[in-house]
Each structure stands twice: as structure tokens, then as C-alpha cells.
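Technical annex B. To support the medicinal chemistry partners, we prepared a structural model of the target in complex with magnesium ion, based solely on the information shown next.
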Amino acid sequence: MTDYPEAFLQSVIRQFRTEGIFQRVKRFGNGHINDTFLVTCADSNRQYILQRINGHVFSHPEQVMANMAAVTAYLKEAVRQSGGNPEREVLTLIPAHNGNLFYQDHHCGFWRMTLFLEQAYCLEAAASPTEFRQSGFAFGSFQKQLAAFPADTLYETIPCFHDTPKRLSDFQKAVSEDTCGRVKTVAEEIEFILERAPFTTILAHAYAEGDIPLRVTHNDTKLNNIMFDSNTRKPLCILDLDTVMPGFSATDFGDAIRFGANIADEDERDLSIVHFDLSMYQAFAEGFLAGCGDILTRKEISLLPSSAKLITLENSMRFLADYLEGDHYYHTSRPGQNLDRCRTHLKLVWEMEQQWKQMNDIIAEIRKNKGEKK
Ligand code: GN1
Ligand code: MG
């Protein structure tokens, strides 16, 4: 992670239309991609989130911001119409003085600012199935709210983001190039992944056959991308809209499961405490399907268990590829962290395979209780 001198950060902050006088800026959050800071101003009740968009990951940050502007405007209108509070329930972009939604510094760094939500918090882990069910409802509702959004007006901010077969070939390239000489130390992990190569086409194949539609999806549905309201203790606002673009419904489900149904940390080193928790999975599935209402087709719902396993496997490949390539993509705070992240995910894939029948039965049961139509 880059260190920025405070005077430089202040010069960036001055570019944006903040209220009040600058007081302090400090690093914030646990994102693996962008550099995030909390900005506090005196003489106003406002705090702000300042982010430098990772230019290696997002080659067109202005397209990221165009998507964000369109999606947040659309969501704010939906919230307004349903009598909610758009400022608290949808991210608010703070423009720069020149009217743009971003500022480009002299080193080509791309910065943006959003309003920080007071009286709200993020969770790194759900304390109970109830919290996780609520987060499922929030991500499901997000898809439902955007169901009529014109998907073809959005940029693909990271091409082939959840194209698992492409992720597999990128991973295989990282293995064959072995730029850091690390392949010999992770033979077992590589073998585990490659044994599951045929499975990686499951969503791509369903789409190619016309069995599932493209929808506007979030594509990064980690639990910590939701802010909860401190008073109601319920989800308030969905964050991290960098990857909102056309995708598969099931992918948002799967990504949330691989993070939240793991009872240990994403980068836990002690694999004996890493487990896939079926009751968390069930809670999220209940919430997600309720939040989606009746937008999902029968086929999309039937692919939810596969997607949980698929996105877990996909993340394991991405983490291991980054480890093999020298840890350039994800932020890391210690050596071997990407390998640890990969290993937790492989353990989760393994446990999902052991509980495959239960995972499918849970979805079938929710479906039955919903009295499904499509
Ligand atoms: C990254 O930035 P963050 O932490 O929300 C990544 C996701 C991964 C996740 C793994 C743009 O998300 O795809 O699933 O790390 N985002 C991008 O924790 O690559
Ligand atoms: Mg993200």
C-alpha cells in the first residue's frame, strides 16, 4: 500500500466540495484494492471517505465514476419514491470544485470522495445468522432495485471480472510462468484447483445456452461492503460500487457466501478453525431470495449452490495467481497472506463438496416455502 504525505492528501482534499474546515485524515477500512481514508472536518457534522482508485485494477477510473453516478442517481430516486432517506441509504458522491466526480493528481492518481455515513458501522463477520440473513436481503434487494436499470448503459469496469474460465486460464498462465519460483511450494493447492477445472464453466455454459440472463449486479458482495445502521442494527447502505455492471445473479450470492459463511477470517492461517457454516449459508439464502422478490428464474435459483462453490474456487485461483506473480494485485500486510487467503478458500470448497446435498436441499426448501412460480 502506498504511503501518502499528509500535505499531499490535504491538497487532494481541497479539490472537493467538502463542508467545514479540514481537521484530519486517516487510513480507513479493509479494502484490498483502493486506498481509503476518512476525512474529518471541523465546523460541520460531515465526515468524508476519500479514495484513490487503483489504476492498475481499473484502467478507466472515469468509467467507474460514470457507472457510480448513474447507479446512485437511479437508486436514490427509487429510495425517494419509496419514502426512504436517499442520503443515508445510497452512497452520495461529493463533486470536485471543477464539477467532476473525481480529481486527477499530478502523478495520474485518480481520487474520489463520498459522504461518510454517521451512526453506521461495517461488519467483518456476522455475529449471528440473523445479521447475515439481513445482509442477504440487502444484496437481493439491490438486484431487485436495479432490475429495470438499462444494463447496456454501464461500462464493464473490469472486463471478464467473474468469467471463471478466464480466471482459470490466467491462473494457469501464472503457474506456467512461475515468475517468483513459488510453484514448487504450492503443488497441492494447484492440483486441487486443476482437478476442478471442468466445474469452472458452469455459469458461463448456462449463459451461453440462454438458460440465465445478464443482470445489473454488484459483483463484490462482501459483508463488509454493507453499512449497518447503529440504531436499527439493520443494513442501511451498500458500498463499493466499483464493479456494479452486468453479471449473473448467482455470482453475487456466491461471493457473499464465500466471505460470510466462513466462520474464520478470509486470511486465517490456522485452517483447523476455517469452516463453511451451513446455517450461515441458509440464513443468507433466505434473505437473498426474499430480497430478490420474484425477479429470479428457476434456473438462476437452482444455480445458487454451484455459484457459492464456483466463486469460492474463483477467489482461490485469484489469490494463488497473485501469490505466484509476486503479490501485486491485492493489498497485503504480511508475506504469504495471499497464499493463506487461497488456502482458506480451498478448505471452504472442500467442505462445500462434503455438504453438497444439504446445500441444495436448503435452496429447494426455501423455494418450496416461497411457493415458486417461474
Ligand atoms: C477485492 O476491494 P475489495 O476488498 O472490496 C476484489 C474482489 C475480491 C475481494 C477478496 C476489484 O475486493 O473481487 O473478491 O477483494 N475486488 C476487485 O476479498 O478485484
Ligand atoms: Mg471492492
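Notes passed to the chemistry partners:
The chain has a mean pLDDT of 96.
Residues 31, 33, 220, 240, 242 surround magnesium ion (ligand 2) (CB under 6 Å).
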